[in-house]
């Protein structure tokens, strides 16, 4: 199973290492650096690297490479999933998962890693259990710890580990009992040159923030559960109830968690909220090009489109741009060759437009392909697939909780080909 | 250490036992000598019944003694049942281990299918070593297999059933583990369920995507049909990392077939323009592979690639040259133009591989370009010294070939080249030059070989087969590191081949004595309840747990006997699933399955639940047998009228079901299964047994000489249906053909019904159910009249779609052109598959087409526009509630069992007095089946008629019972349906139909 873990920052420094079995020399990471150099872009580093004696399985998250060393056969997804779980735990504990934060809390990080993995096999990965074992840092606690020299690790074994609901800790108490659910949908789409949809699908998640006293048993039902084509659940959800009645019945973990994620099938027509009219051309002579982009609303269900950003990866030969935007700001990074046009809220009356010329490296041949546009947007109070929560019931506790559901639609991998 | 572990392994707290299990591999790595003792501890811990321990101990088992498969036997069923409640990491380890176990213990479920498909299958998937192996295997087993159809071991079924819900796990590793289990163990028809889950994983982090795509690439070679519906999910975005792009490309190429190649090629065209040159090169390779695999598009691809030769980017050109070379080798005669064009390219292309390819091509086909070839050699001779090694070798090659064919012009050139090569720095080239000189230049002495030189050099070379690099990777267990790297890693356990003869299944039986003490057993994860009580005394905080379980068990509204069965039953099964499903168990409380099986289990028999698991499975088999018997019985001449109608009902059923089954066999994807409940998949008999049924039918029919005519019709029908399905692809364009034909079949049968009483009612129902509704009146439609009816035929591959047959009649004097559907306005959840556009409808002509609508179990109208070349008409289709369902075949017992589950609110019943016309049950059957698309359930009493169906979209059962009370002259109509709205509406409709 998992032998060791190295955390490596983008400057190729190993800033944290942890060994669960025997110590493996840092030099094993040289193979990783080699692969990284070869790949160039961090996204292109192969997740599994073979070295003469070990296998390196790595993930790239929040500008940190998590490189794990293994020696024997193990399902690669097992390791990858675990590494992501580590990153998520760190994020959960410290609010963000970055080099500086990890360095600041190095003691807690080591404590966490020690608990999460035992002899290379995952032990406690549930954040509720971990939080009982190792208290998340607060200013007061770190002060006390510095003075008394005590550690963060709890004395007793978390009871949750033994119960039938290992994801929930016992004895939760709140004065304000509240349960919030965010239904977040992302549209993945490819739109072709002429504006026709090549493929489009909707991926959704329901994130929950539940702060309820005791052991509440919740039931969440949908107006139209049939829309959900493929689902995956947090382990707390009773799968049988879903199979038979299409309701989510669960005893929630305490705090923030992802209740379910779902997929709305591609066969259903997906409403594409905006359209893009674009005209990008490069001239054979004079080493210049023209760009003209207009964005307009298409099927927005009457809700305003916000946070609209168009980003374009320009071909390498584009040196600079001189563009004027009728709305929002545009910026061109000449190093990464990315043009970002931040529009903000889509104005229905006067459609935002970006127009101007591009100047190319002189003498270089004109690029063959027009760059594709990546679009980011946000629509509040709308789930584009039409999924709606009909009600939330609570059993098992007497008090009346405060309940809320929020819908957001975002653009996922939304790409317009030109 | 050993002592400590032993002690901990028998500790009362499961958490301690869990850590003991964790300690085992540690100790083993320190001191492998202790193995035997450690195995004892593992054996003991494997018998543990808590989910907490299961994962860790199996992990220890895998590390210490993966070869001791015998330790698993006794714990197999328990592990299967616990699986769903084990923590995620343990699930992965257990599933991987059980995959290996199942491979050694059960028979190959696809063995019979291989037999049936034999040749066809092979041609379809290309020569597959694995298939050959299987066939060899078949040759050995086939006599046995023919006699005895494959029956799945109930334990095998248990494993498949209990792992299926885990496809919904949030943990990608678990999903992948289940996917590989299904891929390696499930019957072909069931593997399809994993596709959807795998496609979902592709949305995850790019590392996960990378691993999943690797596995999908391997799967898609063997089971192409599985991923075809998700083709678009593999389309490539410009922002994907290159390694993901290349893998997606691989999958797309594997999925390419005659039907979708045009879409795929169009996609490829966009990819070629990408800025990512590595990716473009891979795309060109992919096009080459598509071209070799699919003959029809070869020329198109070739033309496209030739155009790429004028691309500005040298890499692109080079890659194209290499691919074109491979393609040309398949049919060089027709393409001398392309060869000439390529010869010209030698001046510009600098990429060695491409240059070498061109030179080889010219040398190989120098007869096709007799004038150019020597000239190319002349140019090459000039630059020889500056070329790369690979090019030099090809220059020598070219020279040799030209010398043999055209020695007059090239003799000196060849000599010159060989002389240059003789003094080259590379020894390979020097060797080659020496060898060739000996071979081709006639010498005084020796030269025995030189007369064969022509044969040696100009032998016809077989065209290369462009293969996926992922071919043959499936001999590694999918999802494993070894599979990903395509090399065996340390500690990898080979996936064993299926045994020819199943080992004794009784080894997995657990003795009753062993079961009993545990059966009074566990609450949840806490292990033995005696232990629990002690624990409770100590750990006060834990008191919360049983309290909670009590209150959640309140959910079982029907279950009054909460406490008792709760403590007494939950052995062997995944008892601890209070957390996961206690509330949901609508069956009988005693069955806390942890799987989706409860619906098909017999209710009850609390304590020996393991047995009941097995029983229920054997029951399945029994039911199948029963079904066969029914069919056989039907073949006997009918004694009474009622028997006749019953029979025809069954027959009707068969007719309707057959196309669907055959399709599911050939497509290897069972879409319906993934959505609908287990009970549905159960109702479809497995294809093997189906085949068996057919066989028996054919055997039994000739026994009845009086039914000769009928026999021929039966056979004819079967044949034509099979034929239809042969060319029925997933696209709907051909579906109308199917439908029209099957309609004509119905009329065929109708004609026959005059002579054959047995068929009569079946055909009448079919015919009378085709009630025509008006979609567009001829006045309103300005001469165009459209009528529609619900044909009750399955629509294409989509089991949720209801086939609507549209009949267009043109009453005008001019042609109506371009009839099509536009702008469907559908309620949410509804879907529509339009009919293919009708180009021309001649005056006073008529045409019938079929479209599919998924009404998603509601009687909402489907509104759309019907367009002609001049006008648009707003029309709408509203289905009668009876058309929203499809027939389900079940036995009387099953019917009663299902009915028992749908009592209370879900039951509606109504009394009515029947007119004189309606007295006999023949009429009742006819009227009910005309009002609703349900099938009759064979039953003993002639006072009762039962019908069963299920809704199209959600697959909820609809059960109809009509009981005649002869003395009162009344009829009691009962409808049981989970969907109360549908139930109510259906009662109304059936009443109306009966009252007519």
TrEMBL record, chain A:
Keywords: Cytoplasmic vesicle, Golgi apparatus, Membrane, Protein transport, Transport. Residues 176-417 form the MHD domain. It holds the Pfam family Clat_adaptor_s. SUPFAM superfamilies: Second domain of Mu2 adaptin subunit (ap50) of ap2 adaptor, SNARE-like. GO terms for biological process: intracellular protein transport; vesicle-mediated transport. It is a peripheral membrane protein. Its main location: membrane. The keyword Membrane applies. GO terms for cellular component: clathrin adaptor complex; cytoplasmic vesicle membrane; Golgi apparatus. It is found in: Cytoplasmic vesicle membrane; Golgi apparatus. PANTHER family: AP COMPLEX SUBUNIT MU. Belongs to the adaptor complexes medium subunit family. This is AP-3 complex subunit mu-1. The gene is ap3m1.
UniProtKB/TrEMBL annotation, chain B:
Residues 625-636 have a biased composition (Basic residues). Residues 552-566, 651-665 have a biased composition (Basic and acidic residues). Residues 127-139, 599-621, 666-690 have a biased composition (Acidic residues). It is found in: Cytoplasmic vesicle, Clathrin-coated vesicle membrane; Golgi apparatus. Residues 714-860 form the AP-3 complex subunit beta C-terminal domain. It is a peripheral membrane protein. One of its GO terms (biological process) is vesicle-mediated transport. Transmembrane segments: none annotated. Pfam families: Adaptin_N, AP3B1_C, AP3B1_C_2. GO terms for cellular component: AP-3 adaptor complex; clathrin-coated vesicle membrane; Golgi apparatus. Keywords: Cytoplasmic vesicle, Golgi apparatus, Membrane, Phosphoprotein, Protein transport, Transport. Its main location: membrane. Residues 126-145, 550-715 are annotated as: Disordered. Belongs to the adaptor complexes large subunit family. Subunit of non-clathrin- and clathrin-associated adaptor protein complex 3 (AP-3) that plays a role in protein sorting in the late-Golgi/trans-Golgi network (TGN) and/or endosomes. The AP complexes mediate both the recruitment of clathrin to membranes and the recognition of sorting signals within the cytosolic tails of transmembrane cargo molecules. AP-3 appears to be involved in the sorting of a subset of transmembrane proteins targeted to lysosomes and lysosome-related organelles. This is AP-3 complex subunit beta. It comes from Clupea harengus (Atlantic herring). The gene is LOC105900912.
